[in-house]
Amino acid sequence: SKTITILNLPFINTTNQQFISNLQKKITTKQNTFIVTANPEIAVYAYDHPQFQKLVQTADYITPDGIGIIKASQIIQQPLKERITGFDTLTSLLEIANNSSLKVYLLGAKPEVLQKTVKNVKKKYPKLQLVGSHDGYFSDDQEIVADIKQLQPNIVAVALGYPKQEEFIAQHRQLCPAIWIGVGGSFDVLSG
Ligand code: UDP
């Protein structure tokens, strides 16, 4: 489908509903999928850091996560249909996981935030399989890598902030054919 390019990034031009329906198909067919939910800060950072820009351009979907991206699209007279946020996308993925008993791995945030997030996710989405989690303050990723490789989750939500989360995903996405999504501060919200 069509994209609209802003600051050298091809943003998907779909509604949230169309996007989630596309992701549902990716999950069903076990296709390895990398999602960057790009707010203006990420887009500008990528523009200023060519290596990170290249990495973001390898994503399967770059979504407009912020009103600033929508505004920019209107200014260049190629209006994007909708804002698609990391938090909303994560929520939809957790709902899909709950409905289909999918395996989910959560990576990131401070230990106490992650702990509360795990508790809340288990309560709100009791039928999904929360197969593993790790906080976002590690120096060695070996244990996390081994876990993900062994557990083969369908969805890996990475909340390390940018550019760490996108770098982690680009480096490790071949561990399993999952939906890999960088979700920024989403666990801070889910923990509340
Ligand atoms: N974080 C982390 N490890 C780090 C740095 C950040 O797990 O080394 C977490 C942090 O605790 C927070 C999230 O990543 O939960 C970053 O949230 P923020 O709102 O700053 O997201 P950004 O806008 O940077 O993507």
UniProtKB/TrEMBL annotation:
Signal peptide: none annotated. It catalyses: UDP-N-acetyl-alpha-D-mannosamine + N-acetyl-alpha-D-glucosaminyl-di-trans,octa-cis-undecaprenyl diphosphate = N-acetyl-beta-D-mannosaminyl-(1->4)-N-acetyl-alpha-D-glucosaminyl di-trans,octa-cis-undecaprenyl diphosphate + UDP + H(+). GO terms for molecular function: N-acetylglucosaminyldiphosphoundecaprenol N-acetyl-beta-D-mannosaminyltransferase activity. It comes from the Bacteria. Its EC number is 2.4.1.187. Pathway: Cell wall biogenesis; teichoic acid biosynthesis. It is an enzyme of class 2 (transferase). The keyword Lyase does not apply. Belongs to the glycosyltransferase 26 family. TagA/TarA subfamily. Catalyzes the conversion of GlcNAc-PP-undecaprenol into ManNAc-GlcNAc-PP-undecaprenol, the first committed lipid intermediate in the de novo synthesis of teichoic acid. This is N-acetylglucosaminyldiphosphoundecaprenol N-acetyl-beta-D-mannosaminyltransferase. It comes from Bombilactobacillus bombi.
